[in-house]
Amino acid sequence: MQRVPVSVLFAISFSLMPAPQSCGGVVENGNFVSHVQSLRDLTFDEDTGLYVAPTNTERANFALAAATLLSGDIATAETQAAVVNYEVVQYTDSVSTDVYYGLREVNNTPTRGWGSYFVNLSAAHDVLLEVPHPRFDTNSWDVAARAFRDSDSRGFMMAGAHRNTNGASTADVAHLSDSIFQEVHEAWVGESAERTAYSIHGFNDENHAFPAGTDAVLSSGDGTVSTAVNALDDQLDGAGFLSYAYNTLNVNDAANVAVNELVDGTTFASLGGTTNKQGVYSRGQGGDFVHVELEQSIRFDESNRSAAAGAIASAITAVPEPSSVALMGLVTVIAWIRRIHPRRFCRTP
To answer: Which of helix, strand or coil describes residue 130?
Structure first.
């Protein structure tokens, strides 16, 4: 086993230290998935004309607040969020007992449709769960929120408007490079996109010429089958779903056979996520991106949503992350301190 230099461990320990709790901001608790549902219900609907495209300055200010929140400087994040009329909420999930810090519009009253964003500063897995179409892709938010909590992942992102709020694709953050959603993605995946993002979408099998009974279509967006895609395909298959993965490999290539048997990976090109802006950015930085399309068979049934979320969470925990035994021990100790003695890190602005 390769040893990690002490200097590196020190730097990592400093970056992973639990953030001070927000002593003067908004403090709430409850079931996180139910809270996400309430936020989804506040998102702007189709053809309402309510989405407000952010200016360059607003995007830059939001990116700064998001990066500061991820760093754990809650007091400064609160000040920066206020500049864009957002607030930081400290939310304790009643199921996992984890503490999340979220960016929401002030008084939880959406006025621009920019979305809601949460971080887990003591996460076990440096992964993001993203929901670009919370209204268009029915119940995609539910699967993502469950997977975020169950996998103990780093970040949760949900857009704030239907993709067609001001007309066709006017608020489709998966294909807009100038959205707040994109700014947070770039701020949270890391300089080299070391945090893998799982983007949760939905489809109707009737609109595609896929093999009968297709429940899920996965993709890394670049025509390959990544380790993360392969792991998720395994977990979904193990949960009883029929999962495939878009790729451009030869049909007999071992990587294609592993996820599709002898079905050509290009069969699923319509859901390949090749132009998804978050995926394009992550791959451009040298990182991974997992595009997850779930059929109505999963999204319209609560037990299937729970099972799919569990499969995603299991895949996240199964994919190796850059670490050593010493580092994992360090993360465990820090997480324990965070849970047992949260107030010792609290400070006033």
So the answer is: strand
